């Protein structure tokens, strides 16, 4: 069983920054893919950014140039999402995801609200 715990969400003004972290119950290098998804009210969950063995690093068009996904340099069990130049459309619940074969594992989510 894989456990994922997100942190770092909150309320931020447009143009601001947040950094989300996801701590996994083991090394992220054991998995076939790691990433972040988000779900806005009334919308489906969508990919924000992920890194997979098959496809490398992929970003949603809406976040390219503003968000960066990375592995924590000091911990092999943590994935970070640096979010800059945040917009109100970035509001939603952000979920950490890891893929192991055909199985997806999800964290509980962390709320990000971009509002003035």
Rg calc: 13 Å
The general outline is: globular
Determine the structural class based on helices, strands and strand pairing.
Answer: mainly beta
Classify the helix fraction into a percent range: under 10%
Describe the protein.
It is a single chain. The protein has 116 residues and is an all-beta fold. The chain is 0% helix and 53% strand.
Task: Give descriptors for this structure.
globular; seven-stranded mixed beta sheet; four-stranded antiparallel beta sheet; 116 residues; 11 strands; mainly beta; 0% helix
Topology:
Layout: E1 4-7, E2 10-12, E3 18-24, E4 33-39, E5 46-52, E6 56-59, E7 67-71, E8 78-83, E9 92-100, E10 103-106, E11 110-114
Parallel strand pairs: 2-11
Antiparallel strand pairs: 1-3, 3-8, 4-5, 4-9, 5-6, 7-8, 9-10, 9-11
Can you describe this structure in just a few lines?
The chain has strands at residues 4-7, 10-12, 18-24, 33-39, 46-52, 56-59, 67-71, 78-83, 92-100, 103-106, 110-114. It is mostly beta strands.
């Amino acid at each position: 069983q894989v456990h994922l715990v997100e942190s770092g969400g909150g309320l931020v003004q447009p143009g601001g920054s947040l950094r989300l972290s996801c701590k996994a119950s083991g090394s992220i290098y054991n998995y076939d893919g790691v990433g972040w998804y988000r779900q806005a009210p009334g919308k489906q969950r969508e990919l924000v950014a992920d890194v997979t063995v098959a496809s490398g690093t992929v970003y949603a068009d809406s976040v390219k140039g503003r968000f960066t996904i990375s592995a924590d340099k000091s911990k092999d069990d943590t994935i970070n999402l640096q979010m800059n130049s945040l917009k109100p459309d970035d509001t939603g619940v952000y979920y950490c995801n890891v893929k192991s074969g055909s199985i997806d594992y999800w964290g509980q989510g962390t709320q990000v609200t971009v509002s003035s």
